[in-house]
Amino acid sequence: MSEFDLIRRYFTRSTPGALLGVGDDAALLQVGRDKVLAVSSDMLVCGTHFLSDADPFLLGHKTLAVNLSDLAAMGATPRWATLALALPAADESWLERFSAGFFALADQYGVELIGGDTTRGPLNLCVTIFGEVEAELALRRSGAKDGDEIWVSGKLGDAALALAHLQGRVVLTKEEFAACAPALHQPQPRVALGLALRGIAGSAIDISDGLLADLMHILDASQVGAELALPSVPASVILQKLPDRMLAQRCLLSGGDDYELCFTVPASRHSDVLNIGEQLGLPLTCIGKIVAGRAVRDADGNPINTESGGYDHFR
Q: Is 98:60 a contact under the CB 8 Å cutoff?
């Protein structure tokens, strides 16, 4: 049973009191006349999402960043968060560094920590984040249309490559690892991009489990297929030059932990997306298009295997 099968089978039910329930990057709750709340929870577990010797300042940053990335994918403005911590011990120096990293990012995005919980146990970090967005402008996974272009932000694969180095699956030079490590330890949530895409993008998702796996969530929700120009998927110079081409491809397409946005827009808005990228100083790359049907193929019409791509906690 996959992670997503588990959620669908045991925890997905009708939510008549919500505009949007289980199955997207955040739930949407109508709490006022004009705006809705976007709400998302993410958990980071020691040994699964980070190593036990992780820098607590960077870990504090990432704990909030992965949640901000969910709001970015919904086009929501971040507002509040709660934080639940399971801690092996009350290590004051660790807590000082962790909280400093958390609040540095919170201050950057105007997020207020409004509550949470603490308990003794294996190190486990869980944030629930709340944002605001106009209901009609909220980005969802279900709005991709035949003929839309598929775009991604930034460069993909460096986080997975840095993790592969830490796990001993590849050996990088000190300089190469230093260039890749920030993508893994200190991802930059694309909140400004999500806000700029409101009214332009038909669908969006943050790339946490790998490009192919997360794009499939858009395709499934929108009941469409895709044609991908795989050579156009943006990679760093380090990943492009990696001798192990199979590993490089896995990092790029299914490595996960990128926390970039994948989104679709009508072809008529191509120049608008380029302008957004220029204004934000953020590379945005068109990597394909949405097509009718459910097939996922490359530019030559060959099927792309999406079954083995992406991170899944239960496979």
A: yes
Do 150 and 264 touch, CB atoms closer than 8 A?
yes
Residues 97/56, Cβ–Cβ less than 8 Å: yes
The answer to whether 126 and 41 are in contact (CB under 8 A) is yes
DSSP 3-state of 91: coil
> Angle of helix 92-109 relative to helix 56-74, nearest 10 degrees?
30
pLDDT category, 26, cuts 50, 70, 90?
low
Residues β-bridged to residue 83: 116, 127
pTM, two decimal places? 0.89
Rounded to the nearest 5°, which phi and psi values hold at 35?
-120, 160
Task: For residue 94, give the amino acid letter.
Answer: W
CA distance 40 to 28: 9
CA dist., res. 236 & res. 256, Å (int) = 15
190, 282 Cβ separation under 8 angstroms = yes
| Cβ proximity of 145 and 266 under 8 Å | yes
Least confident span in 30-44, 122-136, 214-228? 30-44
- Domains and their CATH numbers in the chain: 3-137 (3.30.1330.10), 149-298 (3.90.650.10)
